[in-house]
Amino acid sequence: MATIRKQAIRVDQGSEMAAVRSHVLGFGGDVAAEIHYSRTTSKSIHSDDYIEAWIARRLASPRLQVKPIPLAAMGHWLIESGTGNIIHDSGMFFTITGVKARHRSLGGDMEWDQPIIDQPEIGILGILVKSINGVLHFCLQAKEEPGNINSVQLSPTVQATYSNYTKAHGGAVPPLVGYFLNPQRQRVLFAKLQTEDGGRFLFKSNRNMIVRVGEGELEELPDPFIWLTLRQIALLLRRDNLVHACTRSIISSLVLSRASQTSCAEGVMSLAEAIQWLDDEKAANHITVKRQGLKTLKEWSLDEDCCFSHREKRFFRVIGIDVKSVGREVSAWSQPILDNPEMGIIGLLTQVRQGERHFLMQAKAEVGNRSMVQLGPTVQFTPSNYAGNEKLPKPFLFDDFSAGSLFPFSWQNYQAEEGARFYREAHLHRIAELPEGDELPLPQGFCWMSETQLRFFLHLGETVNSCARSIISCLL
């Protein structure tokens, strides 16, 4: 259990550190004002009641029938005889392969092996934005994926791999993807590479994009797309498992759009110090990753259900699913997908420090990220992975975010993982508040960051991990 004590707050009102900082990575003043207005105004093209009814109709009409099957029963997917890797017979889509990893840090030396998704293409995750009656609206779609908990989730305008939008698989080009292919620079509000889940994807990034269309464009959206304001998206985020993980990733870039442009007073870390802290943490974590076949993994194997699972039934397993579709270009298919046996917890601790909201971030090492160490949320863990596990020590604040005995929670609900690669997976998102003036002793690898600093890292790209972006979006 964590302990807290009162801070000794030092404010030097005459310090030169209170000077206005020049604009760094983020949104300019006019765009920031538009974002704020979309978040706060009640004006919108569709009423909240209309949107509720629109979503309810789509949730009530699922088009996918999904059934778990043994890996060996999948059509067009093979368990490769030499390596044991799970591959598509076309050589396309993605591969489930193995990695052997070693992580050395000040906390110790750990080795393990695991399956991982190998899909090296950079995809596009894009949202179109349009000013309608003076208010920014964001184009989302009600999209169904085979691993979804609900039938549909509110997904970005476009989710497309390079193979999708170049028609490498022979299918149709995704609707509206043309707006994200080499758009005019003045139309691009945001475009940064951001990493996928670094614990289960190997070196996978997607380009998160927000692109503006003119007021005279897209007068009619095709089904199942809809225009929503940020206020409406914020309301929908409060519902369990409705706003897609890729949407949350993109939206996280908008949350801190109006963060202070002034530096903080003495006693709070500067942006330069925050950059240096993260670099120090990267230098202190030494990770080696070696691809190897699934057959060679010592801790994983095919189980009695012909799923690929951990010997202690921890972490996740690779299963097969059979999918039948109504009204889609492909009427039936099968595929491997990752199945997590228990919901995890993603938590963020916040505190107001010298007038600006701060976030307790961790330098999170993940085997599948190219930079290895990124900014993670205060906590990200699955409780069962640590129960009786001598190899893994419980992370900092494990009990406090599991039971909620120390910090009051200002937010908690369930947010789903994306359903194309993960099967009916959700995580409890909790945001807690440390009272102003209290101090929490921090272990190695944790640091308080201001809104201004976190906005900088979000707009830098490939620096804030997927779990952190997911829970930051809940602050919208």
UniProtKB/TrEMBL annotation:
<dbReference type="Pfam" id="PF03559">
    <property type="entry name" value="Hexose_dehydrat"/>
</dbReference>
<protein>
    <submittedName>
        <fullName>NDP-hexose 2,3-dehydratase</fullName>
    </submittedName>
</protein>
<dbReference type="InterPro" id="IPR038153">
    <property type="entry name" value="EvaA-like_sf"/>
</dbReference>
<feature type="domain" description="dTDP-4-dehydro-6-deoxy-alpha-D-glucopyranose 2,3-dehydratase">
    <location>
        <begin position="50"/>
        <end position="254"/>
    </location>
</feature>
<dbReference type="GO" id="GO:0016829">
    <property type="term" value="F:lyase activity"/>
</dbReference>
<dbReference type="InterPro" id="IPR005212">
    <property type="entry name" value="EvaA-like"/>
</dbReference>
<feature type="domain" description="dTDP-4-dehydro-6-deoxy-alpha-D-glucopyranose 2,3-dehydratase">
    <location>
        <begin position="272"/>
        <end position="475"/>
    </location>
</feature>
